[in-house]
Design brief:
Layout lengths: L2 H12 L6 E2 L9 H4 L7 H15 L4 E2 L9 H4 L4 E3 L3 E3 L12 E3 H5 L9 E5 L3 H11 L4 E6 L10 H13 L3 E4 L1 E7 L2 E6 L4 E5 L2 E4 L3 E3 L2 H7 L5 E3 L9 H22 L1
Parallel strand pairs: 1-2, 3-14, 5-12, 6-7, 6-12, 7-8
Antiparallel strand pairs: 4-13, 9-10, 10-11
Helix pairs in contact: 1-3, 1-9, 6-7
Bound molecules: flavin-adenine dinucleotide.
């Protein structure tokens, strides 16, 4: 029940159809719960709260702590199935990578791993990497971002990007653009600069922020067992909240039209 699943449920209900919503976590909202945590992103929490209120108002129950699996198909016998299972972090193919030495950004932003007053290297300076840096700087950490390209947070909206990069610079973040991580060890990262210089950086924590990929295994597992399965949101392609909401809304209309055609 991220934004894609929640919006799909609302759209289907508006078309007069019955909906069941499953969430494996203990709270609704999916990645909205994490995306809202870096500085200046609190409005994403308001969006999550709005969607949850709309679900409640429309009498749509979210079954929390329910990991939907292939075997669940036998119980509910749904006419249509929408898979909105979100995305998962890409595993870095950097020599020496080991999840014990190098954390994913989600547990860091969720506060499951509390990093305070430490030296942190972030591998990947895309939107997410820069936002984790922004978040960690509010907790008195010293942060280094290692990014292969020369541009940080390239897909972020212009004004937000300028404000974010100014905050990172003003708080003393070390922005190592044009630098590629070539090896990760316990508390150290080897990099090569675009001038072919090898350097070794050390830190208390290493966080990887190289990106996300669709979490679509359930879709491919279920597809052959049900005639009407649709994949939406980040599980289809990691394109952000607006795209997830749009796909959720549209799938409700599509299913309603198919029902009307049945007569
Ligand atoms: C740090 C960060 C910042 C971001 N900031 C922005 C931003 O500013 N703007 C923007 O547009 N986008 C942003 N995004 C991306 C945005 O959060 C996602 O694109 C959006 O949440 C995708 O929605 P979704 O519903 O497809 O997936 P998700 O929000 O990931 O929701 C999927 C849900 O499915 C559940 N699930 C998975 N498998 C199962 C199963 N088998 N059974 C039951 N439940 C299951 C998961 O627990 C999850 O709750 C950000 C992402 C991150 C990580």
């Amino acid at each position: 029940s991220g934004p894609a699943g929640m919006q799909a449920a609302l759209s289907l209900k508006r078309q007069g159809l019955d909906v069941s919503l499953y969430e494996r976590d203990n709270k609704p909202g999916g990645l909205l719960n994490v995306a809202a945590n870096p500085p200046y992103k609190h409005r994403i929490r308001s969006l999550r709260d709005f969607l949850v209120r709309q679900l409640n108002k429309n009498g749509i129950h979210i079954a929390l702590n329910r990991n939907f699996e292939l075997k669940d198909l036998q119980h509910g016998h749904p006419d249509y199935l929408i898979i909105a299972t979100g995305c998962k972090p890409i595993t870095p193919k950097i020599p020496g990578y080991n999840p014990h030495h190098c954390l994913d950004l989600l547990p860091v932003l969720e506060g499951k791993i509390n990093i305070h007053g430490k030296e942190v290297i972030i591998i990947g300076g895309g939107d997410n990497g820069c936002e984790v840096a922004d978040y960690l700087l509010t907790k008195n950490n010293r942060v280094t971002i290692v990014e292969s390209s020369l541009t940080l947070a390239p897909s972020m909206e212009k004004k937000n990007r300028r404000a974010l990069l100014n905050r990172l610079k003003n708080k003393g973040a070390s922005l190592r653009v044009g630098c590629t991580a070539t090896r990760i060890g316990a508390n150290e990262v080897e990099i090569i600069t675009n001038k072919n210089d090898f350097q070794k950086l050390t830190a208390d924590y290493i966080v990887q922020a190289i990106g996300f990929q669709p979490n679509n295994e359930l879709y491919f597992e279920i597809k052959g067992h049900h005639p009407h399965v649709t994949l939406i949101g980040d599980a289809f392609g990691t394109k952000g909240i607006a795209s997830a909401l749009l796909q959720g809304e549209v799938v409700g209309y599509m299913i309603s039209d198919m029902e009307k055609l049945k007569g």
